[in-house]
Design goal:
InterPro entries: MFS_trans_sf (IPR036259). This is Sporulation integral membrane protein YlbJ. Keywords: Membrane, Transmembrane, Transmembrane helix. With about 290 residues, the chain is mainly alpha-helical. Helices cover about 80% and strands about 0% of the residues. It has 14 helices and no strands. The protein has helices spanning about 1-10, 15-45, 55-70, 75-85, 90-100, 105-120, 120-145, 155-160, 170-205, 210-220, 220-235, 240-250, 250-265, 270-290. Helix 5 packs antiparallel against helix 7 (about 120-145), helix 9 runs antiparallel to helix 10 and helix 9 packs antiparallel against helix 13. The longest helix is centred in the middle third of the chain and has 37 residues, at about 170-205. The chain is globular.
Length: about 290
C-alpha cells in the first residue's frame, strides 16, 4: 500500500502539491489561530504543581472534560494524557475520559463553521450545543463505568511518570510546539493524500465529483471535507447534517493525532473508537432536534 501511494505521488506531483498547499492553508488560516492560544494556556495550567491533598474524583473528571472538550482537537487527548502523567488520573480513568473529552473548539465551530460556512453564528452555536449534548451523554455513561470501579489513590500515584515542572510556562510553550507540529504534519499529509486519491477515483470511475471529493476528503482530513461539503452541497436540506456528520467522523488526520498522544501515555484506544461511533450517530440527531 505504501509503495502504491509513493507511486501515486510520483505520477501526480501536481495534484499532491495542490493538496499539500491546501493543507498548509487550512492549518494556517483555520486551525492555528484557534488552536495554539488555548493549547498554551491548557498546558500552562496542567504544568502547575498539583496539591498533595487529593481532590474528589468528580472534580478531576470535570476538569478533564472542561479543559479537553472546549479547546479543539486534539486538546482532549493532551489534557487527559498530561493528567495521567502527573498522577491525577489512572490509566483506566484516562482511557475512558479520552473518549469523552473530545470535541472541536467553540471558536472553530462558531467562528469558522458558523459564520464562514453557515453564514450565521446562531447555527454555529446550535451545532456546538449538539456536539456537547452527545458528548455529555457519553461522559455520563463513562462516569457510571468509573463509579463501578473505584480507583485507589495508590494506582493514580503509581501512574505518575513526571515530576512537577519548575518553569510551567516555558514547558507549556515547549509541549505546545510539539503538538502544533504534530497537527500541522497530519493535516498537510492527509490533505495531500486525499487530493491524490480523489483524482484517481474520478479518473477510474464515472462518478459525481462533488460527492466523491467530499467523501474522500472527510475520511482523511475533517476541515478539507467541511470545505468541500460547503462548496458542493451548500443550500441543500442535508447540508447542516452533513457538516455535523463530517465533524463527528473527525478524519484520519485527527485520529492520528489522538493515537500518537494516547500511545505516548499508554492509553487504551477502544473507548475512543466507541465514542466516535456514538458521536457520528448522535450529533446529527441532536442537531435535527435543535433546528
Amino acid at each position: 500500500m505504501i509503495w502504491s501511494l509513493i507511486a501515486l505521488f510520483i505520477l501526480q506531483p501536481g495534484i499532491a502539491h495542490d493538496g499539500a498547499e491546501t493543507g498548509v492553508k487550512l492549518f494556517v488560516q483555520a486551525l492555528l489561530p484557534y488552536l495554539l492560544p488555548y493549547i498554551i494556556l491548557t498546558q500552562w495550567l496542567l504544568k502547575l504543581p498539583v496539591s498533595e491533598k487529593s481532590s474528589p474524583a468528580w472534580m478531576r473528571y470535570i476538569k478533564a472534560y472542561t479543559l479537553g472538550s472546549f479547546g479543539g482537537f486534539p486538546v482532549g487527548a493532551v489534557t487527559v494524557s498530561e493528567m495521567k502523567k502527573n498522577g491525577q488520573l489512572s490509566k483506566y480513568e484516562s482511557s475512558l475520559l479520552l473518549a469523552a473529552c473530545h470535541a472541536p473548539g467553540p471558536m472553530f465551530i462558531v467562528g469558522y463553521v458558523g459564520l464562514e460556512l453557515f453564514g450565521d453564528s446562531m447555527s454555529g452555536w446550535k451545532l456546538l450545543f449538539a456536539i456537547h449534548a452527545a458528548n455529555i451523554v457519553f461522559f455520563l455513561f463513562v462516569l457510571l463505568l468509573m463509579a463501578s470501579r473505584r480507583t485507589p489513590d495508590g494506582e493514580r500515584k503509581h501512574s505518575s511518570i513526571t515530576n512537577p515542572s519548575s518553569a510551567p510556562l516555558l514547558d507549556a510553550f515547549k509541549e505546545s510546539s510539539t503538538i502544533i507540529i504534530l497537527v500541522a504534519t497530519t493535516v498537510v499529509f492527509f490533505s495531500s493524500l486525499g487530493s491524490v486519491l480523489t483524482n484517481v477515483i474520478q479518473a477510474a470511475a464515472s462518478v459525481e465529483m462533488g460527492i466523491v471529493k467530499t467523501f474522500v476528503l472527510s475520511i482523511f482530513e475533517m476541515t478539507s471535507g467541511v470545505q468541500s461539503a460547503a462548496l458542493h452541497f451548500y443550500g441543500a436540506p442535508i447540508f447542516p447534517y452533513l457538516i455535523a456528520a463530517i465533524l463527528s467522523i473527525n478524519g484520519l488526520s485527527i485520529h492520528m493525532q489522538v493515537f500518537v498522544i494516547a500511545r505516548s501515555a499508554e492509553l487504551s484506544l477502544k473507548p475512543y473508537v466507541i465514542g466516535r461511533i456514538w458521536s457520528v450517530l448522535a450529533v446529527p440527531v441532536f442537531l435535527y432536534i435543535l433546528l
